[in-house]
Amino acid sequence: MIRYKYLFLISFSLFYFSSSAQETQIIIQLDGSLSGKDVLRTSFDEQVYQSVDKFEGELRATLDKPSQISFYIIKNNGKIIDQRGFWVGEGTYRINGQVNDLSTLEIDQKHPYEELSREIEKSGTEKKKELILENLDKEVALNALISNSGIFYEQELELALHQVSPELKDLNSYKRFASNLELTTISFQAKEGSESIDFSLLSREGKQVSLSDFDGKYRLLEFSFTGCKPCLDALPEISEIDRRFGESLVVISIWNDRSRDIWLHGAKKHKELIRWTDLWDETGKVTQLYEVKVWPTYILISPQGKIEQIWNSYRKGKILGKMEALFGGSRP
Q: Of 94, 103, 216, 287, which alpha carbon lies 20 to 30 A from 85's?
């Protein structure tokens, strides 16, 4: 378990400053406990924290614009079962509630974005559209556009995307939304026996790497994200697979992280094992394309490009056993 009390004060020590920078302090007190192997994940200013117990702590940040602090309860397989978020800006905020029921979370002062978010939420369809389109220079309205995209016609969505302010188009949430809209034009179903579809993603070395770069070899796609404990638990086994079968098999990790910083620097001790191809799915397009809904997910692609097998979630020894059956050899 990570105790936020200590981690918070360390992780927010480096920030860039601007003329509009805002000093923000968030004091958090959550009581209770989670069931089973559930995990509470907290995301704020591109930083992610995890805990399996109640916590109290303090976040300090220098922000150049309003930001959202989000809480998620995640199952052991990576599935999000509950979530709650609050907008914050300059000043001090206090958040209290029960860790096992995020609907009980309360914040002592409401940022103007909270009020706009509430107004959008309670409005009828046409008024909701109007409020969103009028405020697409604000991240809160962009988030509302994404979560309410179903009420817009396709042509309306295209026009709305053009109205989003340039600075918001740099956000990962915008890039993911625009990318997901593109997927509606692609006819592909990720299932065993199907032909795989090519993609190109950024590597840790800063190069674009494509699936087709490894045509003629078996490829094991490993879909993960840094906040997924089973994904990190699996890395020693993936490392052994790469070491033992690397001449016949190319291991490709695909990280569905919301920022490059989280991908590169999050869970460093676990990721030190990685010696294989390691890629960032910045927009989530490849993760969506291959219909990944459970983490980790493993997809084995044949030298001819067919999807041979798909496995969801991690159980110690399972993937290694599959590779031993395919390539031969027993455990040392």
A: 287
